[in-house]
Structure formats: C-alpha cells, structure tokens
Amino acid sequence: MAGLPVNIRANEGCETLPIPFWDSVIDPLSGYADWALAAPHETQNKGGLAAQAALDTAVILCLFTDRYCPPSHPLAGYIEGGDPRGWWGDGVDVRTDLGEAPLGSLLWLLERATATPDNARWAQSFALDALGPLIASGAAVRADAQATLSPPSRLDLAVQLYGRDGTRVYAREFDDVWRQALTSPNYAA
C-alpha cells in the first residue's frame, strides 16, 4: 500500500495508544467515506481520529478505493464518461521494486453493471487482487472472497483473511457492493 506498513496487533483495540491507520466509516445513504473521530474512552487520543480497527480500515481502503482501469481491460466498456478513475497517489509513489502495488480495486466498474454470475466472478477477482498488498505486507497470509447474487439485482461480497497459524483474523460481509454500504464493525460512537 504505497509506502505505508500495515501494523496489526494481536488484540487490536485493546491498547490505548493510536495506530497510524485511522478507522474508516462509510455513510450507507451517500456512499461517501470519512475518518471516524476518537471516542471519549480513547483517553490518549482526545480530539483525534479513532484507531481501533486497523485491519478493517486497510480492507476498506483496498476494496473501495478506485483503481485505475486501463483501456485494454475487458470491462473498460463499463467506464462512464471516459474517466478511468484511479487514486492520485499511485501516480506519485508506487515502488514496485519494494513489492508495492497500486491501491484499490476495480469494483467501481460494476456499480452500473447488471448483477450476473459473470460479474459476480469479476467482483471476486477484483477483491482478491485488491487485497494482495495485505498479503504482500504480511498483514495476512491468505485472503478469500466470495461474491454472491442476492435478489432482485444485488451483489454481496464476503471477505476473509487468515493469519500465519491458519486462523481467520478477519471476516466481513459487504452487503450491496454497488453502494459500498458499510460501517466499521469495531467502532462504536
């Protein structure tokens, strides 16, 4: 992830000191993300940003940051208005010699697509590709993703990450990927 190490603690959320990944919170109605403010019980971080869900925030950044779509991509026809999107920081500092990859996913291509089995497979592939930096950085050793169709025309995405000992360290279901309707499960206002 473009120069930032992923620091995961064994008992995430138990320590009082903040960590460098701030909790992301996405408003389900608008689909826009913002950083969560520190809760009153975070005594060493008053007035700062919440930092209790580093892995969840890293997954959200990987999945829901728009990655650049090259014109040669098989789904480039889904690009509306000619904007191939992409995160501006990838144009500044992606050190492939250090194993870094562009941030984000191509899930945005499916926002206006029909919910079909083929597009469910694309969503699963996009998610696994986007989670690659978490594997490369050692935050997890394996990622799984399942995209399923839900009536009438919705795509749901489930993501799991596994640690070195084979235990599942992260599991999250993202309902309605099209609207990115999610909130941090570890953040309580």
Task: Explain the overall architecture.
This protein is of the alpha+beta class and 189 residues long. The chain has helices at 54-64, 117-130, 132-136, and strands spanning 24-26, 33-35, 142-150, 154-162, 168-174. The protein has one domain (24-174). A hairpin with a 5-residue loop joins β4 (154-162) and β5. The model is unreliable at 8-20 and 177-189 (pLDDT under 50).
Q: How far apart are the termini? A: 28 Å
Strand order of the largest sheet: 3-4-5
Helix-strand makeup class: alpha+beta
Instruction: Work out the count of structural domains.
Output: 1
Shape: globular
In round numbers, the mean pLDDT is: 76
The overall strand count is 5
Largest sheet: 3 strands, antiparallel
The total count of helices amounts to 3
Strand content: 15-25%
Radius of gyration: 17 Å
Order of helices and strands: EEHHHEEE
Brief summary of the model shown:
This protein has 189 residues and is an alpha+beta fold.
